[in-house]
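I had to read the description of the data format several times before I understood it. The format is easy to grasp once an entry is in front of the reader. For illustration, here is how one protein appears when written out as sequence plus structure tokens:
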Amino acid sequence: MKKKTATTASVFVLIGLATAAALTYGYWLPVLREYFVSMQGRNEQADTLDGDTADPVTDTPPGHDSSQAAESEDSLHLSPEARQNIGLTTAVASRQDFTRTVAVPAVVVERPGHSQIEITAPMTGVIKNIFIQEGMSEQPEDNLFSLRLTHEDVVAAQRDFLKFLQERDVIQREIDRLKKIGTDIIPERRVIEQQYQYDKAEASIKALEQSLILHGLTPEQVETIARTRDVLKEISIVAPEYEEGGGGQNIEPVYHVQQISVNRGQSVVAGQKLGTLANHSLLFVEGQAFEEDAKRLVNAMNSGQNLKVVPVSGPAAQASDLKLLFVADHVEQQSRALNFYLLLPNRRVDQSGDVSSGSAFLSWKFRPGQRMEIQLPTDETWQDQLVLPPEAVVVEGPSAFVFKQSGNHFERVEVRTLYRDKNVVVVEDEGQLAGKTLVMSGAYEMYLALKNQAGGGVDPQHGHSH
């Protein structure tokens, strides 16, 4: 009886456990499965260690290439897409001489007396039309303004000019009439007297022609007055011809309207400024050096040596080699600076579109007021070394290195820098890098990728050579 009771109790216990297991399997089944999987992995690892032995020299497991481990530390593989993403560029390194320079401030300025042309009123009048806008490009003989004449002297000169033209015509007709009658009836003295009056009228006409030209009319306008026998009520003021010589440079000059100084309907007097045209195809770069640089500047000028000029706000790739034109003959009182000037050929970079007059708005690469830096050479020179851009050399603590290309692989090579500034780095070369293809930009991004490849964290600012 007791045995049957125990058996019945055991059955109820098993049923209870099964019921509990069925209700809670979502909790204990994943844990149990993970345990068995881990045990299976340990058994497989033990079987592998029992079958292989480690290399006693390199302590590297069999089947592992030690050269690949070294490659992962000092070399990097980049796909063409990755190279484009970081803006990587390469070039063959070559040795050259490098002279250290010092940067002096400079600014682009206009050429006094040549870059600006003032347009003035040739005579008193009223501005009738303005055909230009500021910034517009213009060519010689293009119409700029039209002026309605109110100058009393010009009006009087035109009136007298027409009067003498009429008198001359009357006298000429009288001479012709007398000549037809003949000297048998008309005394020859009368013909001579009429010829004398004709000469007087002709002399007055010539004098008035010159007077009108001096007042600002062109010979063509004077001829129009004589042909039409009508006074000239308004005149057109046009752009002048280009300056001859162009500063000795093979450049294409072009005017642009820099300023308009009058309004329509405004009365102006002779000589009053109407506007300003500018020709910025040739400008100056005005540098400011110290007094001790005077000898170096004069030597550069006499030897015809060009100086490198770099825009302050632009990349070093926009540097220009310019001719040193002259050095000022005095030192500025306030700044104690010695000014010197370089000739800067300019070029048009944009024309925003045509307007109704057929002209176009104009933009120049260099503008007066733009800040520049001029590199003055010093006596410190490195000969037969590598000269690289700063983007090609990465500094990591006391070390510096570059990347040498071999196909899609890039190897890090430690180098010694002799000199560096914001534009160049001079690297000592003993023959291992000359003639090799080196990374010229994107080296710092490759340094970050190399660090990540090695599995170590990297400070984004550490070793940044920019």
The CA atoms of residues 286 and 341 lie 5 Å apart.
